[in-house]
Amino acid sequence: MKSIAKERINADLYRALSNILMTKVNHPALRNATILRTELSDDGSVCDIYVTDNLSAFQQSTGFFRSELAKVVKLRRIPRLVFIQDKGQDNADRINQLLAELARGKK
């Protein structure tokens, strides 16, 4: 798949999934969750979706997200959705905490 087409589809999937999360999901565990980014595989068969928290709730809702996605995204075949917890923000918070502790120790 060409990179321009892949990026366009990635953006479409991200927007659609974020909209579904905000407007159609009633699961209490997903109320404060956020979809950070999507990564479509080169062949378009798998879409990795990076989320902030509640990975198990997302995994349980995979079928719902896929069926809702099929209603709004015009693709011949909807990719298999794989939810992945993004630890980037947690890691950044931990690093900032450690740096703050080091700064307090030097004073």
Task: Write a structural description.
- The protein is an alpha+beta fold and 107 residues long.
- The chain has one domain (3-106): K homology (KH) domain (GMP Synthetase, Chain A, domain 3), CATH 3.30.300.
- Helix content is 53%, strand content 17%.
- The chain has four helices and three strands.
- It has helices at 3-23, 55-60, 62-72, 88-106; strands at 35-40, 46-51, 80-85.
- The protein has a three-stranded mixed β-sheet.
- The longest helix is centred in the first third of the chain and has 21 residues, at 3-23.
- The protein is globular.
- The model has no long low-confidence stretch (mean pLDDT 90).
Could you name the key traits of this structure?
globular; 107 residues; GMP Synthetase, Chain A, domain 3; 3-stranded mixed β-sheet; 53% helix; alpha+beta
Q: What's this, in brief?
A:
This protein is α+β, with helices and mostly antiparallel strands and 107 residues long.
Q: Helices and strands in order, then pairings?
A:
Layout: H1 3-23, E1 35-40, E2 46-51, H2 55-60, H3 62-72, E3 80-85, H4 88-106
Parallel strand pairs: 2-3
Antiparallel strand pairs: 1-2
pLDDT below 50 for ≥5 consecutive residues: which ranges?
none
Beta strands, count: 3
The neighbouring-strand order within the major sheet is: 1-2-3
**What proportion of the residues is helical, as a percent range?**
40-55%
